Amino acid sequence: MNSDSNAATKVAIVTGGASGLGYAIAEKFVQQHIRTIIVGRNEEKLQAAKEQFGELCTYKVCDLSDLAQIPGLVHEIVEEFGQVDILVNNAGINMKKPFEEVTDEDFQRIILTNVTAVFALSREVVKDMLPRNRGSIINISSMASQYGIPKVIAYTASKSAIEGMTRAMAVELSPEGIRVNCVAPGFIATDMSAKALNNDPERKNKVLSRTPMGKLGTPADVAEAVYYYATEGAKYVTGTVLPVDGGNSVGF
Predict the structure, then answer these.
(1) 172-176, long-range: CB within 8 Å, 24+ apart, which pairs?
(2) Residue 86: helix, strand or coil by DSSP?
(3) Taking 60 as the threshold, does the pLDDT of residue 188 lie above it?
(4) How far, in Å, CA of 11 to CA of 25, rounded?
(5) 201 CB contacts (<8 Å, ≥6 apart)?
(6) Is 140 contained in some domain?
(7) Residue with more model confidence, 3 or 105
(8) Smallest Cα–Cα separation from 40: which of 13, 74, 64, 68?
(9) Handedness of CA 17, 74, 29, 211 (dihedral sign)
(10) Which residue range(s) make up the domain with 145?
């Protein structure tokens, strides 16, 4: 009995899985009996998350902005767990600065982590998925790609790129059985957003007033959407961007 259920266990990689949205996504996957490998830079945080999630969770320490490490990371995961069924490209960095103060280095640093590393990791995982003609890749975008937000030019460029890449990947990979979709979270209550919004009542008021539901979302709301894309329930869904935003992207 046990070996059969183990054979059916899917394997997922969640980048940035030790905190915030990634943590919620990894938690949901483990609850649904998906073997989940969380990837991040901070071993202490990864270890703590693994302890919370239990034996279905493993972690790998990797700075994804060091592109040379990515093929080895994927090879190691495939060697250890046999395959990768689901990839969630969640890791990302942000920076708030007035447009004219953003340096070339600032811009490149955000693009490297948020776009180039996502491409490189996806490419390596796809090499494992192609021979099996199945897989689900879920990218994480942002409201920054749905409309203009001031002082986050590099982040906005990176998330717009992610949505374009999602469509291009879906068109090329879906005939091979690999679905590619994207979740665009709105304003979600995390430690990071709480800090930002509580220190800026005007911004918080603006966020809530243009969100028809009138409240922030939770990381679990995003995790549910990601999980949907990872399941058979979404087997005819590819190339889509799903805003999980309480109506924010259409709010006035």
Answers:
(1) 173/126, 173/137, 174/238, 174/239, 176/129, 176/130, 176/133
(2) strand
(3) yes
(4) 13
(5) none
(6) yes
(7) 105
(8) 64
(9) positive
(10) 2-187+218-242
Q: Distance (Å, rounded) from C-alpha 50 to C-alpha 237?
A: 31
- Is residue 192 in some structural domain? no
Asked whether 187 and 147 are in contact (CB, 8 A), the reply is: no
Number of domain units in the chain: 1
Enumerate residues 6+ apart whose C-beta is below 8 A from 233.
Answer: none
CATH of the domain at 24: 3.40.50.720
- Taking only the tens place, the pLDDT of each residue in 24-79 is 999 999 999 999 999 999 999 999 999 999 999 999 999 999 999 999 999 999 99
∠ CA 73-74-76, rounded to 5°: 65
Active-site residues, by number, are 155
DSSP state of 188: B
Asked whether 154 and 102 are in contact (CB, 8 A), the reply is: yes
Q: pTM for the complete prediction?
A: 0.95
CB 151 within 8 A of CB 95: no
Of 218, 212, 155, 226, whose CA–CA distance to 184 is shortest?
A: 226
In a domain, 194, yes or no: no
- Under a CB-based contact definition with an 8 Å cutoff, are residues 128 and 137 in contact? no
* DSSP-H helix ranges across the chain: 2-7, 20-31, 43-53, 70-81, 104-111, 117-129, 153-173, 191-198, 201-209, 219-230
Tokens for 14, please give them: 């969640």
Closest of 16, 10, 73 to residue 223, by C-alpha: 16
- Most distant CA pair in the chain, distance: 62
CA separation for the pair 188, 251 (Å, rounded)? 16
- How far apart (Å, rounded) are the C-alpha atoms in residues 233 and 237? 9
